[in-house]
Amino acid sequence: MDVAQESQLWGERYNRKLDDIFEVQAEVASQISEKLRLRLTPEEKKRLTKQPTQNREAYQLLLKAQYYTSKWTAERIRQGMAYARQAIEADPGYAAAYAWIAATYNSLAAFGSLPRREASPMAKAAALKALEIDETLADAHVSLGVAQAFYEWDWSGGERSLKRALELNPNYAWAHFCYGSWLLYMGRRQEGLAEVRRSVELDPLSANFSSGLAFQFYLARDYDHALEQYQKALELDPNFVYTRPLLARVYSEKGMHEEAIRECEEMVSLSGGVPFSKVTLGLVLAKAGQLDEARKILEELKGQPKLDNISEYLVAALHAILGEKEEAFKLLERAYEQRNNWLVFLSAPTFDSLRDDPRFADLCRRIGLPESVSAQT
Prior knowledge:
Elements: H1 21-35, H2 42-49, H3 56-69, H4 74-90, H5 95-111, H6 116-133, H7 138-151, H8 155-168, H9 173-185, H10 189-202, H11 207-219, H12 223-236, H13 243-253, H14 257-271, H15 275-287, H16 291-302, H17 309-321, H18 325-337, H19 358-367, H20 371-374
């Protein structure tokens, strides 16, 4: 549609069998480029009509994998990985399926469902396999970049991979989001926020991107914009896993302690009291001055089986807020030895009480974070 002229540029009806899906896709892409008189290079024309697989079963299985992974819970991500593996069994040359497996390993590491040392090599191997089949696959470059930067702390390698993904697909929202995160963790705040905002513009219905933008405002201590953005994310998906706990932390930093505690108590109830939700409640209780209640939660968590990456990172933050610096640094060092991916968020306000300690700057240096992050207030 030409909105300015209120006229239709092109439209067509297709009545085909499902078996013709690939032919229809190629035909639509070709006709739209012709009608819009797009000036495409030979390489762009080739990518426009390229079919990632000719196996319809594999194609359908990968669609299911993408659907389940988009739910952003560990259980759904594992379901998505299972479908992606079935897609590879149906078509061993399906590069996009390998790229999706790489993405799921990265996600499972982020959730702490797999140890970083186990998940990251698998993510990297799957991404490299995808690129061996098809070097022009932007998804694979993003998954490789995420594994390099956020799990291996190879920041320069991660940047190259993420920029290559954007070069191949400038309108890929996930690539903009990941590169924006990279820029923010490197202390390039304005550039990073612009990239994350771009991901929201490209995919305005994604609660993940909307919540992610709010989190970057939170890290930048821009709590008013963070609160506004988290409320938008809740409108998109009130059950998105990261929105409510981080919204509670924004309330807490703004001194809105009743709202923060209420948000956390609801989250603990809805989640069945998982460690992540409990320790977040501990954080907001400590910020509200309810130190004994916060310490009770720490005692409860000591009786839990091994905590996931997120919870271990937050327990260190809780000790920092309680003024227990030695315990906080002990846990942060253990997280460093385990290469806990959540250490890239050391710029969070929850660690502000540790910033005047030389050990904190040294930890940031070893991870590869810039001096501006270790000193951020």
